[in-house]
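4.2 Preliminary Data

To establish feasibility before requesting continued support, the project team ran the inverse folding procedure on a target of 313 residues. The structure was first converted into the token representation described in Section 3, and no sequence information of any kind was made available to the design step. The complete token record follows.
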């Protein structure tokens, strides 16, 4: 296990933070998904634990921040939303120091989104005993709750991830969603994970267990699941951003291309989508789209995680 993965466990090997899905055991992922599924099926998921969640988002977010807030609300928790411009970070306080201060006030969980993956890891390392740190999206590196909600969505619709052909398409190189999806899907036994996109948008070294495909049609053929990604303009030089029309012609998903996949292929997108660029409006909201399930499952996964990581559970 890498050091990065090791910091998220306590002395007894129990998960106490969620910084990355890298190296997280299949049983642990399944336990989170099972609990999230119980919440989806009507279990309040609370387990009696009380807590306070602080959302610390240093990059734009609507769905992830709201999802954490709604999840905490389902548990009867109090929620603090701390925006950068109103926090002491503007006075030079480090995020680790802010975390300690919040913990002293009784905050039990932090959901952090940051452009630097290293920052989230440092906060987890410095966190006092009763504070759980959850990565809500860090740079291009990790977005573990998205990986979990995507895995849950696929499991619900397909029963299992084993033997599925999953195509992750577009700007995989800069996507934290893709990285966390790959960790989750591989841990759950997916054996045909295709990374589909132009060379410059795929990772320089292909993650273990994945296959790079530089042709959209070939990548889609026979797929059970297709995950479309937004071009992460904010993580690349302006000159490298492809022209939207050219990109759409070569790599966009439309109804015609989707026919190459299996007839019951699920279409997923973490949002926000650029309609007409990586995906058409028709497909995004079409009969094969699972985007609403993804959003719902996001709440269930976060309820499960908050309950599981909080002390006393
Ligand atoms: C993603 C993110 O922020 O990483 N969105 C999300 O959390 N649902 C994907 C993106 O921004 O493209």
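Position-by-position output of the design step:
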């Amino acid at each position: 296990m890498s050091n990065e993965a090791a910091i998220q466990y306590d002395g007894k090997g129990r998960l106490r933070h969620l910084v990355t899905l890298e190296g997280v055991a299949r049983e642990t992922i399944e336990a989170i998904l099972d609990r999230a599924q119980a919440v989806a099926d009507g279990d309040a998921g609370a387990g009696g634990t009380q807590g306070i969640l602080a959302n610390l988002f240093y990059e734009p977010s609507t769905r992830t921040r709201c999802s954490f807030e709604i999840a905490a609300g389902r548990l009867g928790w109090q929620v603090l939303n701390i925006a950068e411009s109103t926090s002491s970070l503007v006075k030079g306080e480090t995020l680790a120091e802010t975390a300690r201060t919040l913990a002293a006030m009784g905050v039990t969980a932090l959901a952090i989104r940051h452009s630097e993956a290293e920052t989230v890891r440092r906060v987890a390392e410095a966190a006092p005993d009763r504070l759980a740190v959850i990565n809500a999206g860090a740079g291009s590196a990790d977005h573990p709750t998205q990986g979990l909600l995507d895995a849950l969505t696929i499991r619900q619709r397909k029963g299992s991830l084993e033997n599925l052909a999953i195509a992750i398409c577009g700007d995989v190189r800069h996507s934290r969603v893709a990285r966390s999806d790959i960790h989750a899907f591989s841990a759950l036994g997916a054996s045909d994970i295709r990374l589909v996109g132009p060379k410059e948008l795929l990772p320089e070294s292909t993650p273990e267990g994945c296959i790079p495909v530089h042709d959209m049609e070939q990548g889609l053929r026979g797929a059970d699941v297709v995950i479309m990604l937004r071009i992460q303009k904010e993580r690349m030089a302006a000159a490298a951003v492809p022209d939207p029309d050219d990109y759409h012609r070569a790599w966009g998903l439309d109804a015609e291309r989707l026919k190459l996949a299996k007839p019951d292929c699920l279409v997923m997108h973490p949002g926000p989508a650029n309609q007409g660029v990586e995906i058409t409006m028709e497909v995004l909201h079409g009969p094969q789209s699972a985007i609403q399930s993804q959003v719902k499952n996001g709440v269930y996964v976060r309820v499960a995680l908050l309950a599981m990581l909080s002390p006393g559970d």
